[in-house]
Amino acid sequence: VASRSTISTQVAIVGGGPAGLLLSHLLRRSGIDSVVLELRDREYAIKRVRAGVLEEDAARLLTEVGLGDRLHKEGQRHDGIYLQYAGVRHHIPFRELVGRSVWLYSQQEVVKDLIEAHDAAGTPPRYSVSDMQLDNLVDGSPTVRFSQGREDFELIADFVVGADGAHGVCRPSIPETNKKTYTREYPFGWLGILAHVKPSTDELIYALHERGFAMHSMRSNSVSRLYLQVDPHENIAEWSDERIWDELDIRLGTPGWTLERGEIFDKSITPMHSFVSDPMRYGKLFLIGDSAHIVPPTGAKGLNLALADASYLHDGLAAWYGNGDERGLDEYSEKSLERVWKIQHFSTWMTRMLHRFDESGSFGQADGANPDNVDFDHHVQLGQLRQLCESERGMAHLAERYTGLPFLRYPSAE
Ligand SMILES: Cc1cc2nc3c(=O)[nH]c(=O)nc-3n(C[C@H](O)[C@H](O)[C@H](O)COP(=O)(O)OP(=O)(O)OC[C@H]3O[C@@H](n4cnc5c(N)ncnc54)[C@H](O)[C@@H]3O)c2cc1C
User: How far apart are CA 348 and CA 45, in angstroms?
Assistant: First the structure.
């Protein structure tokens, strides 16, 4: 049997996505040692296309910790969104309503900034690790065994953080008897494209249409991101570029407005579901980001939640290392979950309000196959959207939630 090299650190972080990388960055700034173990290689991590909206507090935090340069140069501040229904577009002016904004800056750019900061500090993640195994999570020194290249390692730490996303090894390391999981499947997914074309809109458009939801987002002045609600089992090969643009035209169309077309350079279908694992702590293992919870993308919250968890767990760890104060770590799971469920509510609310629930299922009701019910539900959605857009308080509620709940801090401000 080949021998294992032993490494030790204060905090072992499994997963080098935005949550794990941010936590490690924050810990380094507080003088706490950590090692990030990442399954993929550096190139893959930097290129992975995902979310694109940063809440105001997420953008502020990144700026405060030295990661705001490119965000402020290349990102775009957005002061509102459009909601569209019955062929009419309504502006929700966030700044006027609640004095807050969001930033459009891709997740892959956030990851790139974090990786570059780690490289500059001489603490790059360990990439292309495999065969991860977690031990001693409750008693003794937590240990992560893994392989890298042809070598086997054993990483011994005070704490292990599961930042390894929805399909990682950390959550499954918590025994079934010590956790409860909550799941909500949706009978649809999003077909997302990236195209080389100037956005045809100044703000994001969220559209409810009889044929299903559509969305127009953007990544820069020359790259547009658009989405269509589709069956999650749809074969992407059956969606030619022309068919995608035609369908976007139908669902996003309003009189006098033109959707500019361009070369599609990325397309994929993502099924949609919600998930929560409770608690977010087991002994000396803490879960952050997608390893603990998944939200449907309609509220643009997944990335923000991941960053918020990382920031809050950092505070708890910093208090523990600072003066042995355990309260932050003890409160971490309960307080994070309270916040997570509020965000699950917002994401579910947006999803229900804006998607078409066809014969393949309605919201947990066995009568979803009845076309009368489908039509009825669509008209209820129109009623809901009209009430929202006709009421300043209704719009302010959306604006407040979309721009984001305050990040949790420990110790909390007196
Ligand atoms: C296709 C897709 C599109 C999305 N689009 C949006 C969107 O438009 N808007 C939005 O708000 N959110 C979106 N999300 C959600 C958002 O991207 C996630 O919430 C966010 O990435 C969570 O960050 P994280 O760091 O917790 O997890 P991840 O980004 O998943 O990072 C986990 C990391 O752990 C690594 N890893 C996995 N297993 C192991 C292992 N065993 N050992 C070591 N490392 C491991 C992975 O390679 C990855 O780098 C999308 C997600 C997906 C999958």
Answer: 29
Residue written as token pair 């087991």 = 282
Q: Whose CA is nearest to atom 7 of ligand 1?
A: 51
| Strand-by-strand arrangement of the 151-156 sheet | 4-8, 151-156, 143-148, 129-135
pLDDT at 365: 41
Q: Is 50 in the pocket of ligand 1 (CB under 6 A)?
A: yes
Query: Does residue 306's CB lie within 6 angstroms of at least one atom of ligand 1?
Result: yes
Phi, psi of 143 (to 5 degrees): -135, 135
Give Cα separations from 258 to 220, 331, 407 (angstroms): 19, 51, 39
The Cα–Cα gap between 57 and 171 comes to: 27
| Whether the CB of 272 sits within 6 Å of ligand 1 | no
Grouping H, G, I as helix, E, B as strand and the rest as coil, residue 377 is helix
CA of 174 to the centre of ligand 1 (A): 20
Q: How many Cβ atoms sit within 10 Å of the Cβ of residue 351?
A: 22
A 10 A CB-CB count for 150 gives 6
Confidence of residue 372 (pLDDT cuts 50, 70, 90): confident
Q: Compute the distance between CA of residue 380 and CA of residue 377 in angstroms, rounded to an integer.
A: 5
Residue pair 151/128 in contact (Cβ under 8 Å)? The answer is no
pLDDT tens digits for range 89-106: 999 999 999 999 999 999
Positions annotated as catalytic residues are: 78, 206, 297, 301, 402
Dihedral (CA of 344, 179, 319, 135) sign: negative
User: Could you identify the atom of ligand 1 that is nearest to the CA of residue 294?
Assistant: 19
pTM over 0.85: yes
Q: Which residues of 372-399 are buried (b: 16+ CB within 10 A; e: fewer)?
A: eebeebbeebeebbeebbeeeebbbbbb
Distance of CA 326 to the CA centre of its chain: 28
Average pLDDT over residues 132-138: 97
Q: 151: which strand partners?
A: 148
